[in-house]
Amino acid sequence: MNLTERFMQALQSTEQQRDPAPLVELYTEDGTSENLTRETHRGHDGAQQFWTAYLGNFQDIRSEFTHHADGERLGVMEWVSRGTLKDGRPIEYRGVSIIEKDGERVAAFRTYYDSAAFVAPAADTNGA
Description:
Layout: H1 3-17, H2 21-24, E1 27-34, E2 41-42, H3 43-56, E3 58-70, E4 74-85, E5 90-102, E6 105-113
Parallel strand pairs: 1-6
Antiparallel strand pairs: 1-2, 3-4, 4-5, 5-6
């Protein structure tokens, strides 16, 4: 199994168990994690913080991978995630994640997704 496939499997395990350890184990000592906030988390502690914060957005979440590719230096994953936000609202959103590889370890993780899915719908002020 290549690193991209191991990463996908570790993410699904992390989501099911609500424990980021399977993902953190895949990172290099100075690996980075970054999402749309552009805040960079470094190292194993940073990966732990990044994935713990990710899980903290949801009551439950499950990612399904629709496409992936694994090259010598990069892995790319397209996905759809479905679940329930902390406030009880259902969520479904799509995105793409990229891993930069250092051998069989994650040197950098970046993810891009439809952040509009996280915005609560405006209250209906017309009484309808």
